[in-house]
């Protein structure tokens, strides 16, 4: 993912940014880490805790987190001796917006089924790698 993050002034994601984001998410551990971070918004998780929950060696997890960060999907912040990672929900929104920006050729009523079900953000059954 050597490409720099460039977002249009109007808030629209460029094709290369979307490709970078999808490439970052196209690996199982990175996808699991991103989904884990989404479940732990807004507080985030320490890098070591992410590695522990996903049963991935710390150095391997660091490499995966770096890929997600370069794609703009996560952000990190030092808190004491830990680095806390959080999902970048704004970037995820841009990615989803990119996918549906041309939806239904100007007939948004056809795209109604793309809206999230009411319970999509509610409690779900425990997922693989989330031991919280």
Automatic annotation (TrEMBL):
PROSITE patterns: HTH_ARSR_2. InterPro entries: ArsR-like_HTH (IPR011991), HTH_ArsR_DNA-bd_dom (IPR001845), Metal_resp_trans_reg (IPR051011), WH-like_DNA-bd_sf (IPR036388), WH_DNA-bd_sf (IPR036390). CDD domains: HTH_ARSR. It comes from the Bacteria. Keywords: DNA-binding, Transcription, Transcription regulation. The keyword ATP-binding does not apply. Gene3D superfamilies: Winged helix-like DNA-binding domain superfamily/Winged helix DNA-binding domain (1.10.10.10). Residues 10-107 form the HTH arsR-type domain. NCBIfam families: HTH_metalloreg. This is Transcriptional regulator. It comes from Salinicola rhizosphaerae.
């Amino acid at each position: 993912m050597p490409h720099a993050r460039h977002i249009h002034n109007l808030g629209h994601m460029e094709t290369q940014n979307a490709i970078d984001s999808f490439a970052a998410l196209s690996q199982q551990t990175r996808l699991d880490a991103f989904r884990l971070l989404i479940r732990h918004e807004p507080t985030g998780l320490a890098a070591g805790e992410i590695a522990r929950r996903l049963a991935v060696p710390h150095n391997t997890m660091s490499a995966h987190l770096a890929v997600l960060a370069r794609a703009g999907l996560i952000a990190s912040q030092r808190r004491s001796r830990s680095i806390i990672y959080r999902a970048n929900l704004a970037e995820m929104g841009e990615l989803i917006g990119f996918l549906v920006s041309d939806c239904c050729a100007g007939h948004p009523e056809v795209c109604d089924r793309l809206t999230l079900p009411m319970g999509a953000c509610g409690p779900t059954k425990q997922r693989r790698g989330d031991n919280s």
